[in-house]
Design goal:
With 173 residues, the protein is mainly alpha-helical. The chain contains 5 helices and 2 strands. Helix 2 packs antiparallel against helix 5. 27% of the residues are buried.
Length: 173
């Protein structure tokens, strides 16, 4: 359980690194006339992602969930792949990547990197991590609850992003 706690804390640290990048990128976007959309759903997103991390530890520890090596290590590989995809998205979008929906008017859509394959690859990473991180140590209730709640949140988020991009005139590069 100690190593699982370390894994969850490492993911939490990664999230803090994301927030630091997002803060820098927010300043960059706002200085260039960027506008934020979807402020209303942002607190729910933060709460859900925080609850994912807390739920992993709460369910796996006191819940007595076992670590099943073959399944658990497979889920660790999925968590690592999700982090790699997320940081590929961050690198590809550069200053445009954010945890908030901020669009700088007139910039073309990014269609390179993982965006040449998927419209919203970062959300694939989020979904994969939200399933795999709890399942590393058998926390299936957390995985299930996160997945259901995240699906609803992502419907709102993607709709918000698409509307923001359309109103800012974002067209494929």
């Amino acid at each position: 359980m100690i190593w699982y706690t370390a894994l969850v804390l490492a993911v939490a640290g990664e999230r803090l690194a994301e927030l630091a990048v997002a803060l820098r990128n927010t300043r960059w976007a706002l200085a260039r006339g960027g506008t934020e959309s979807g402020r209303g759903h942002y607190p729910a997103m933060v709460a859900l992602h925080t609850a994912l991390l807390a739920g992993c530890l709460a369910e796996a520890g006191p819940g007595g969930r076992p670590f099943l090596p073959l399944f658990g290590w497979t889920m660790v590989a999925v968590v690592v792949a999700a982090q790699a995809l997320r940081w590929w998205c961050i690198r590809t979008l550069g200053h445009r990547w954010n945890t908030r929906v901020i669009v700088v008017p007139g910039l073309p859509l990014v269609t390179g990197g993982p965006y040449r394959l998927l419209r919203h690859p970062n959300y694939v990473a989020v979904a994969a991590e939200g399933i795999a991180l709890p399942l590393v140590h058998g926390a299936w209730v957390t995985a299930l609850l996160f997945t259901v709640l995240n699906a609803g949140l992502m419907a709102v988020r993607v709709s918000c992003e698409e509307a923001a991009l359309a109103s800012a005139g974002g067209v494929p590069a």
